[in-house]
Amino acid sequence: MVHVIDKFLGLFSVDLGIDLGTANTLVCAKDTGIITSEPSVVAVRKGTNDVLLNGNAVGNVAKEMVGRTPDNIVAIRPLKHGVIADFAVTEAMLKYFIRKAQNRKWGVKPRVVIAVPSGITSVEKQAVIDSALRAGAREVYLIDEPMAAGIGAGLPITEPIGNMIVDVGGGTTEVAVLSLAGCVISESVRVAGDDLDEAIIQHMRRTYNLLIGQPTAEKIKKELGSAFPLEQELTMEVRGRDLTACLPRKTLIRSEEVREALLEPAMAIVNTIKVTLEKTPPELAGDLVDRGVTLAGGGALLKGLDKIIAKETDLPVTIAEDPLTCVARGTGEVLTQLDLLRAILMGSD
Fold first, then answer.
1. Per DSSP, what are the bridge partners of residue 161?
2. Angle at 193 between CA 34 and CA 334, to 5 degrees
3. Kindly report the CA angle at 333 between 100 and 186, in degrees rounded to 5?
4. Are 284 and 290 contacting, i.e. CB atoms less than 8 angstroms apart?
5. Which pTM value belongs to this model?
6. Any idea which fold 193-261 has?
7. 3-state class of 10 per DSSP?
8. 109-164: pLDDT as tens digits
9. 2-40+80-148+333-347 belongs to which homologous superfamily?
10. 164 with 276: CB under 8 angstroms?
């Protein structure tokens, strides 16, 4: 009887694809496209899992609280390096996004496809499934992030052709060679957007004795950050707290020094690509000479990342259209193609 009721309610649900990212969560509705894109941040009362504002202090609302909360409130990111670090808070976050996507209709349970890093364990995968089911999903399917990114980027992943996708997210960088609806070779490294932010924070501390927060570091990354020399170098005024005087202070920084600060994490991404290429079967490697590398994820927007990858690998590099939403759009696409979803799931067994 319960099964019949669930099936009946499912007729009125909107199937969802979710890019459950370390930095941002994007939700894609079947046949509609991206309907939600918000930071993966939740504000809770310290020492509890009680989400503020009646469970609505999630995403944009919670991010505004980062670094600005009193002692009894903490704004946290429940995912670290693409995996769940806080199960209860992740469940609350998923519940918020699912209800928002379903217009808060009680009893309506969607089928959900969630993208996860290719390197996570079976225990971590089960944790994602359990959290989504408790958050209100009717059925849950997992898809590797590089596969979802490749689909979202429009690569012919079902054909017997080598396609290399590099998904630079917030917590992990996923590199994979796709062919015949499967990952032939994949590598995952826990170096991505968060590490770029941290490199900038440490640079400001060492060079200027200035303490800045993650939001300021992210702003510097977006405005000045680069992995390759710019045609016109830039400057920016940065405000923070002097570590010696413990007073507010501002200073002027240059894009050249930011690029130097980002060199180590950027090269870690490049080296992961090289390792993947070394393991790629020769026939598929031959395909990549012409097809090259496709970049996806928010990290693909780092200025010059495509150029340094092209220089180090001697392959053509393309940035996918709207790289930040590639994974989410990929999860939405498989919802419309059940045969493709089944092929991918069989290939991942």
1. none
2. 30
3. 105
4. no
5. 0.88
6. Actin; Chain A, domain 4 (3.90.640)
7. helix
8. 888 999 988 878 888 889 889 989 998 898 899 999 999 999 999 999 989 999 99
9. ATPase, nucleotide binding domain (3.30.420.40)
10. yes
